[in-house]
Structure formats: structure tokens, C-alpha cells
From TrEMBL:
Coiled-coil features, chain-numbered ranges: none
Lineage, uppermost ranks: Eukaryota, Viridiplantae, Streptophyta, Embryophyta, Tracheophyta
Domain spans labelled Protein kinase: 30-215
Membrane topology designation: Single-pass type I membrane protein
Localization terms from the record: Membrane
Record's GO cellular component terms: membrane
Alphabetical UniProt keywords: ATP-binding, Glycoprotein, Kinase, Leucine-rich repeat, Membrane, Nucleotide-binding, Phosphoprotein, Receptor, Repeat, Serine/threonine-protein kinase, Signal, Transferase, Transmembrane, Transmembrane helix
Protein's organism: Flemingia macrophylla
Protein name as annotated: non-specific serine/threonine protein kinase
EC number(s) on file: 2.7.11.1
One GO MF term: protein serine/threonine kinase activity
PANTHER family in alphabetical order: LEUCINE RICH REPEAT KINASE 2, MDIS1-INTERACTING RECEPTOR LIKE KINASE 2-LIKE ISOFORM X1
Cited SUPFAM superfamilies: Protein kinase-like (PK-like)
Length: 215
């Protein structure tokens, strides 16, 4: 992103088509009425830019923006998403990294997460078996792309129903690359367990040498 007033907010340029002022104006300085979701680490806002384009903004809570671990995760997400392009992977339009304002600008999804849809009776009715199979295929295509077409390969490490988003066509979009990593082809394992318990491979929890290939 760029800023019309210079580098006052340390806006890091990505596609050059969105300015910091556009974001502030579109959300009325992140007014709660534009908030479409709140998580443990940040809030998600819906914003319509002057061009008419609708985007989703993930803004870290003020407290988390001072936590080195979350700043590292934030930067890692930017690093990963600027390296890859795939129809089943969330598209990053831009980002702002500053002590007082940290947010990511993503493509807007017409639906919510797969977790939300599956746990909402009204929404879940739209997911017939054919659609569910297509959702699984979409996730598999994204992982296959990261594992086989990216050089070096990228391992997501936290594929959960919460991190799989659905667009208006009910197609799967993999998101949240905060703990993703580039795979060192010379290394066969890692020492730290990463991911969401209940989803990570049992072998990792038990500290064995065998783990699932698709993460």
C-alpha cells in the first residue's frame, strides 16, 4: 500500500492501488459497524474502496501488535502470500505494519469459514455432498500447489475448517499462513510442534518420526 501523506505510517507497498487513507475512509477509522468478525488476535472488517472493490481487512488487536510472536506471524503471512498465486489460496492485496496499526488487506469472501458454515443449520443446507466434495478438492488443489509447484515447497501447518474460507460460489479458499514455512529439502523433520490441536497429525503430538504428508 502507499500513503498520500508520505511514509508516516510505514505503509509497505504491495500492489500500489490502495492507500492508507482509502482504508481509513472506507471503514471510518475501523468503526465497529464494519466489523464482520472478531477473533482472539484481531478483528475482520468489510470495506468498499473508492474504486468499488470490496476487500476484507484483518486488523490485529492493539495488545497483540506489541507481541513479538504475533508480529513474526504477521510478517510470515505477508512473506508467504506474496510468493504464491492460486485460485484456492487467499489473495493478499496489501498490508500495513506499524506499532499502532497493523492490518492485512485480503480479497473478500462472500461466505464465512467452513467451520462457521458447517455449524450453522441454515448455511449448512447449502453444502450438499457434491459441494462438500468440491470443497475438499479445492483444499487439496491448494496444498498440492504449495507442496509440488512452489520452489521451495511451502507447508501450511495449520489447515483447519476455521482456516478454510468459502467464497460466494462455495469454493474453498485456504487462508491464515501465519505459521506456514518454506520446506528445507535437506531436512527430514522439525523439532517444534505447530498447528491446532485436534487437527495436527497424531504422530507430531506423540513426538514420533512419522507425520501426515498433507498439512
Amino acid at each position: 500500500m502507499s500513503t498520500k501523506n508520505g511514509d508516516l505510517f510505514s505503509i509497505w507497498n504491495y500492489d500500489g492501488q490502495i492507500t492508507f487513507e482509502d482504508i481509513i475512509e472506507a471503514t471510518e477509522n475501523f468503526d465497529i459497524k464494519y466489523c464482520i468478525g472478531i477473533g482472539g488476535y484481531g478483528s475482520v472488517y468489510r470495506a468498499q474502496l473508492p474504486s468499488g472493490k470490496i476487500v476484507a481487512l484483518k486488523k490485529l488487536h492493539q495488545m497483540e501488535s506489541h507481541n513479538p510472536a504475533f508480529v513474526k506471524s504477521f510478517c510470515n503471512e505477508v512473506k508467504m502470500l506474496t510468493k504464491i498465486r492460486h485460485k484456492n489460496i487467499i489473495n493478499l492485496h496489501g498490508f500495513c505494519l506499524h506499532n499502532h496499526c497493523m492490518f492485512l488487506v485480503y480479497q473478500y469472501m462472500g461466505k464465512s469459514s467452513l467451520f462457521y458454515v458447517l455449524n450453522n443449520d441454515a448455511e449448512a443446507k447449502e453444502l450438499n455432498w457434491s459441494t462438500r466434495v468440491n470443497v475438499i478438492k479445492g483444499v487439496a488443489y491448494a496444498l498440492s500447489y504449495m507442496h509440488h509447484d512452489c520452489i521451495p515447497p511451502i507447508v501450511h501447518r495449520d489447515v483447519t475448517s476455521t482456516n478454510v474460507l468459502l467464497n460466494s460460489q462455495l469454493e474453498a479458499i485456504v487462508s491464515d499462513f501465519g505459521i506456514a514455512r518454506l520446506l528445507d529439502l535437506d531436512s527430514s523433520n522439525q523439532t517444534l510442534v505447530a498447528g491446532t490441536y485436534g487437527y495436527i497429525a497424531p504422530g507430531e503430538v506423540l513426538s514420533s518420526n512419522i507425520s501426515e504428508i498433507y498439512l
